[in-house]
Amino acid sequence: MSKQRTSSFERKTKETNVSLQLNLDGTGLSEVSTGNGMLDHLISQLSRHGLIDLTMNVDGDLDVGWHHMVEDSGICLGRAFRDAMGDGRGIHRMGHAFVPLDESLAQVVVDLSGRGYASIECGLSGSMVENLPGEMVEHFLESFALEARMNLHVKILTGHNGHHKAESVFKALAKALRMALERDHRASLDVPSTKGVISE
Fold this sequence. Notes:
Strand content: 25-35%
Structural class: alpha+beta
Helix content: 25-40%
Largest sheet: 4 strands, mixed
CATH topology: Ribosomal Protein S5, domain 2
Oligomer: single chain
Distance between the termini: 19 Å
Radius of gyration: 16 Å
Number of helices: 4
CATH class: Alpha Beta
């Protein structure tokens, strides 16, 4: 359990160039630059409230829209997260959180199971979250969950302001991940699965 849970990741395609470093046992420091201020703000919530140190830089073909940048940001963050988590030995594995932001209330449940799946009910499709299309918020979450190989269930229980809904979701995701990643001192040497593995 003494292994540092850190990762450095780079990915360059004809559409985007992504580099990031993260520490799952950090203090919540972040420097995020994706080219979209709202997405930067949301990803920074994961860092601050999940106590994950994160430096992330994304350059992309923004002239064709936000899709490539948002998708590749989620993919790369998910892969780095999975790499940093390692075999998951000694973690709680599952976590959940309810987080309000004014009229919005988000529920997020995660299982760091090695099985990528996302159920996202944010009610953001067809709307704008400041300068970011709402469906891109949902697509980021899906891409992140699949590449991190986690089960992710997100639901907005109440709310109407798009900014509030998106931010409450990312804060709740941060809190749920923090819970799931916490070390279980009663089972510090065990992989939390009857199969004996969650990393394959």
